[in-house]
Amino acid sequence: LISINSGCEKFLDTQRQGTYTADNYPYPQGGTPYDTYLFSAYNALRAYNYVSDGFMVATSIRSDDADKGSTPTDGGADVIGMDDFPALTNGRVNSLYTEYFTMVNRCNTIIDQVQNNTEIVATPEAKLQAEAEARFLRAYSYFVLVRCYGRVPKIDKVLAVTANIPQSSPSEIYAFIESDLQFAAANLPINWDKKFAGRSSKGAANGMLAKVYLYQQKWGQAMAAANMVMMSGQYDLSVNYTTIFGESGENSKESIFEIQGTASATVPSANGIQYASIQGTRGNTNEWNRGWGWNMPSATLEAAYEPNDPRRNRTILYSSQAGAPRTTIYGQAAPLYPTEVPNTKYNGKVLVNPSFITQYN
Which of 65, 135, 268, 313 is most exposed, with the fewest beta carbons within 10 Å of its own? Predict the structure, then answer.
């Protein structure tokens, strides 16, 4: 009987099963196994009523800064009622409400996956980061909801179809928002790899938190949160006002959080935003006809600028005489909406450099 005992260090140097190591982690530069769920939430930022029609009507057209614009009857009773103020319950009120709670539901789904789905293998850091992104987007949505509607249901988990959640007071909703943003600020990265442009960051959470505090007149806490942004070294005011809202200003040092839209030859409009075309200048087929003509700057907004303030002419587009050449600042003939507009990425922009256009056609 022969017995052979053999020992070798490499036999014991085996890879742990069911967990990732630094060498084989498949989500480099900050990605997580929850990105499918997260990207669904980020995609909702571009939803029609989340950022365009419903949002614009509720936050700008109802304000002193803008009027509905366009023709007197355009938009129907819903938009006219919002412009005249106050607005009774109507389609726009309901659409905005529904769109923002759709985002809340997607965020709650992400948090549920992080906390309860044991089949997803993720590091503790990835779990915290995914939950922080979801809670930032949820807080952002509730911040709009509480300002537009006051009392709204506080929903912090995935609900059964038959659930009926009572409304919470504005103070309860604000406390909920603060909690989400504080968690996000503590667990989000200070910045992202450039391929993840638009994802929420520590600065975005602190910046939003400062604004939330301001709305509650919590001046000291607002100052502290704002200082976190200013002292982070990630942001400054170096971008010229004339370019900050153009293509060269996208995701710049002045941008704390920016919704991403894109277009390509294969996907010309699916990832775009209609925010610009709704506000595009409206005219007949022989003049400027770039969109709906909504959200027209008011005389009150114009008068609010001091004399010779350069921001006024970069904010308010003044019409020229009827029949004047419809040319952009680059000397191009501006296309008419909708027959000549190459795609919805072009929308109401009159500042597109010709060198960029071919890639979007």
Answer: 313
Give CA–CA dist 109/44, Å, rounded. 13
Architecture of the domain whose range is 29-249: Alpha Horseshoe (1.25)
Which tokens is 218 given? 């919590």
Strands (E), 29-110: 66-69
Q: Which residue has the tokens 């007149």?
A: 217
Query: Which tens digit of pLDDT belongs to each residue from 212-229?
Result: 999 999 999 999 999 999
Q: In the predicted model, is pLDDT for residue 28 greater than 70?
A: no
Query: Taking Cα atoms as reference points, which of 341, 340, 346 lies closest to residue 359?
Result: 346
Instruction: Report whether 142 contacts 104 (CB < 8 A).
Output: yes
Helix, strand or coil for residue 303? helix
Counting every residue, how long is the chain? Answer: 361
First to last CA, the chain: 81
**3-class secondary structure, 62:** coil
* Domain definitions of the chain by residue range: 29-249, 262-361
